[in-house]
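SEVERITY: medium
COMPONENT: batch folding queue
REPORTER: lab tech (J.R.)

DESCRIPTION
The queue accepted two submissions in a row. Attaching both inputs and their returned structure tokens so the on-call engineer can compare them side by side.

ATTACHMENT 1
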Amino acid sequence: MEEDEYKSTYNELAAVRCVFEKALSNSQGNRQVKCSLSQHFCLADREGYSCKNAQASIQCKIFLEQLRENSRFVLKLHEVNGPLPHNMEIRVQVGGLKGLAKLLDINEHKIKVDEPVTIGNINQIISAVKKQYGAASNLPYNKIIQSVVQFQGRQRRQR
């Protein structure tokens, strides 16, 4: 499949693209991150996610943009213009969602740094945050960013 054909078909399947696609795809084999509004699809040898609700997708996008902007110092970046490089994007998405879960105390217990946190429903977390804090700019990012700092993605394999 040619890359142009792939992108065209991908855009048809994901009319409303899930902005947390990397977090959903990169859950280290045990799917630590899930969302009730995500629609999983496979295309050629790749996988992707679309969102079933355009309004929820906008909420997620606003939060993710704020999260990227507030993660600049941690990631040693001067500015953020759109998606980050792959590993940084995963770190921001998964770490940020874990930070929100800790902030909302959804997991009902103190979460240790090395303990895997399961994000059962991104939409539920984002909605709860919006209800509690209002706008995404009102969130205490200094607390959320701690989870971005602590998040360690998959380690490189030794060759």
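ATTACHMENT 2
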Amino acid sequence: MKRMKFLNGIGAMFALAVVALATTLTSCEKEDFNVNVEPINAQAEIRPTVLYVDENSTTDVTDAASISYSEGPTFTGNPGLSAKEVTVTASYNGITNTAKVSVPALQAGQYLTLSTTIILQKEAPAPVNAKAEIKPVVLYVADGVTTDVTDKAEIVFDPANGGVFEGAPELAATLSKITATYEGVSATISVNVPALAAGQSATMSPTIILQKQVGNARVEVKPVVLYMTKVAVIDVTASAEIVFDPANNGIFEGTPAIEATTSKVTATYNDIEGSVTVNVPALAAGQYTTLTPTILLVEQEEPVDPSEPIVSIEVEPSKTINVKGESDYLENQSDFWWYGSVTYTHKQGSKIVNKDIKTTDFDEISKIGGFINTLDQTYVENQLTKNEVPVYSHSRTIAFVDYTIIETIYTFYRVTETPDTRSTITKEVIATVTTEEYSTLFTLKHSQQIPGHGHAPAGHGHGYDHGHGHGTGNAGGGIVIPD
């Protein structure tokens, strides 16, 4: 049988201890008294003690143990007793051990009690290997909706162990890199795997948030085409033929940003053609603006009477002004990130800022007034709300509004030819109208410092109460949103 180790202070390796206690035998010898004495048979008895040793204590289980003998345990001579070797087997709680007991030869009348101790030691369990397991949670944020895509995302571990670390039996501290990919968006985080003793285990559940990529910058040119007749000014944008150069229908898409460029817009209506060159601004990824240049097409007049004056108009862009609009911010002093909304003033179209009408002629005033009213109707000013604005932990998200204003001067002339010759032409200014054409640029800046706040901007924070480890606690779990 397997020899057992006695742990509880017994020390050395042994299977049994045998203590033999022999009684002294007093013999009666025959004297010359002529008395006959019957010999007494020799006797021997084995009395085992069974001790059970576990991790914490030693217990006498003699009465509860199952004990068997190869022979005996009581021996009677006739009258003497010959020597013999006896095997004593004890079993308890699934553990068995044996002891060899040597019974010596005894003469008639001798009596011997033999005590033996059998130790049954519970075998120490084999050490359990330490184990750490990383089970990441992958969240995908797009258009204000957060979806758990852990089962759909591609997750790669480095080292390539599926996120499972086995000790032998202990586990040394180490580092694991996890890369998650979904819908073309990827992020990599590092997780500190803690040192674990044999038998310890830990499960870490870092959260990886994949933020849908910020959209490309976009500029859209939407011209307003006005047709000026002798009696009225008409908005003909919907019916005019409009050609863009470059031929992109007036839409500029960034990859993701847009560099500054120009767009030539040509409008044709009733065989009259006019064009304007639009300056397309440089935009960063995610920025958007709409440009609304005005193209004025003037119907040519041929007076019935050569001496009858006609009205002509000249258009001259005066200057371009960039104006900082209002700014707003969302502030987050917590460890978690969330969505908010900001409101801003969006301005678009041409606004009449100055008019100087010198003429007193009714027809001329009517024509100029129609132009002013039609152009002024293109100006729109609205309060817009930008929703789903992420506000990261311990930071501000600031919303900026910039207005690009193109100032344009429209000069109206009374053109008169002399009656005797058409080579003599006089031009007299009868009115000037100054407009400001607005376009609005909205910009968000994330992870800005909070004035007086003790924390520096903490990246993107935890969000959605994930990223906390289990078992021995979070060992390097975190949240990453790729920029």
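NOTES FROM REPORTER
The longest strand covers residues 425-448.
No errors were logged for either attachment.
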